[in-house]
Amino acid sequence: MVRTASRDDRWLSVGHGRLVDTPDGRWYMAVHAYESGYRALGIEVTPGCASGLLLFYNPEHATGILLDDAGIGVRIANGYVPSRAHQGATRAQFRLVNDRQEIDFYYRVPGDAWRRAEGSAEIAGMDHNVLGGFLDVRPAVFAAGSGHATFRNFRYWREVKSPV
Fold this sequence. Notes:
mainly beta
């Protein structure tokens, strides 16, 4: 059995998984864990589209940064977007920094420096022990609405790299 022993471990929330029975009768366990990391994504949208970069548990429990007709905003885990920046922007780059399950959101519009978004999230409770379902938090991109979104330049780093 394996488990997370410290917040300084490379893998967090270790200790749960799924049993897999192979056709030849052998059993394996696929262990689920979260590695603190950094993600970056370039996004471009047309009118009527909302798109962004999320940490997704299920449709009701996801947090991330988005771009839509109202501008750039942070989606808190319950779906609420408290404020917007850069109204009218159609293109942006996003970064999520996960430092010990405390998430900071960064964005950059063409020609500007990286900025930290106003909102942040704490995701320690976004797991099956709290929410059920035996799921895990996964990075995700999304696009919704009547317009179109183009995603470019998805990158992932294991270590925390704050852009500002």
